[in-house]
Amino acid sequence: MSATDRLSQISSQITSSLTSSKSAREKLLTPSPDDVVVTCALRTAITKGGRGGFKDTPAQDLVVGILKGMIERSKIDPALVEDITVGCVLAPGGGATEFRAASLVAGFPVTTGVRATNRQCSSGLQAVVDVANAIRAGQIEIGIGAGVESMSSQYGPAAVTEFSELLDSYIEAKNCKVPMGVLSEKMAKDRKISRAEQDAFAAASYQKALAAQSAGLFDEEIYPLDAKFEDPKTGETKTITVSKDDGIRPNITAESLGKIKPAFAKDGTIHAGNASQVSDGAGAVLLMKRSTAERIGQPIIGKFVQAAVVGVPPLLMGVGPWAAIPKVFEKTGITKDEVDIFEINEAFASQCVWCVNELGLDRKKVNPKGGAIAFGHPLGATGARQVSTLLTELKRTGGRIGVTSMCIGTGMGYAAVWVRE
């Protein structure tokens, strides 16, 4: 053990002794040299699948763009980054080969490792947590957790392989492939979430997102990218700069949403206006220990505290945040009242409304800049995107503690706790 490492260990022990009598919140806010910190978190704009600014941009090109943005924004020496993990759901083979190639194009050396990971809608968060845990374990010093999805090019029935006879012979296993809209419709009926509640929640998401975009509140977290775009009317291909979420729409009210026909059942409550948008986008988070950041001069914007994943019945996948958030509270000792902002993915208004109600969360703390209903849910990217959205809003409002969470297809929930520096 080097002298520097020994000093870090002693400092950590002293800090632990001093904070033993403090509240859970105070402990979370007390800095330690061993904290796994965030020194940069950014995302691309999120664009409409098949129609938006990134409709002609492959997922691997989005990864090139977001990694270039990470180097530019953070000023990190790429040679110091030991590993990159990219969450992605739809890419064949998980995108592992393409993402390794993308890192080289972005400017990282061959010595930087790259891998892909897939835990459905939480893939981006899983990537970030994997990197944080590798740092905490001493496997690496510096890493990037990222997420990406091109739903324009890879979304559809082909994204899920046929089940074998063995899997199909088990009822609960077979439930893992029930379409999201169908099971969410069933959940809304079973849990008695009305169409009016869902449309009101969705309208609020649009209204919050529009207000945030108009006020420039997304600008800090978005890294603009140039993209080739084929005009569907003229067939002309041109280069555009994509710097704003293009799924956000004005003049959305609960009344206007109430006129849209249900998508999954004639007497259903779920439709295109109260479910997450099919989208394209990417996000990335740069992580290292506090002692490392201070040594190399990286500005600290937040820290990763803890995460929790939990399984739920596949047909009730939407309750995931309800199960995962209390679990991460148990791990950290904090309560919902000590959290300043909750970023909960809006897969469907039905499941988000139910989770928020059952957890007894203050609606003002939930998705203050809107959510996936308003600006989209590029499956593998959302978990990484939420970190940049959360930390910039905590900074703007003076909040300190935040939670990111989402439900996960096949029946899981994920949640993580973050602290703004």
Task: Report on this structure.
This protein has 421 residues and is an alpha+beta fold. Helix content is 38%, strand content 20%. The chain has 16 helices and 12 strands. It has helices spanning 3-19, 24-29, 59-74, 96-106, 123-136, 151-154, 165-168, 171-174, 180-190, 195-214, 254-257, 290-296, 320-332, 349-359, 372-375, 382-397; strands at residues 36-43, 47-48, 83-87, 113-117, 142-150, 225-230, 237-242, 279-289, 302-311, 341-344, 401-408, 412-420. The strands form 2 sheets. Strands 1, 2, 3, 4, 5, 8, 9, 10, 11 and 12 form a 10-stranded mixed sheet that branches. It has a two-stranded antiparallel sheet with strand order 6-7. The model is unreliable at 14-19 (pLDDT under 50).
Structural classification = alpha+beta
Chain-averaged pLDDT: 94
What's the number of helices?
16
Give the strand content. Answer: 15-25%
pLDDT below 50 for ≥5 consecutive residues: which ranges?
14-19
| Helical content band | 25-40%
Rg is 21 Å
**Tally of strands:** 12
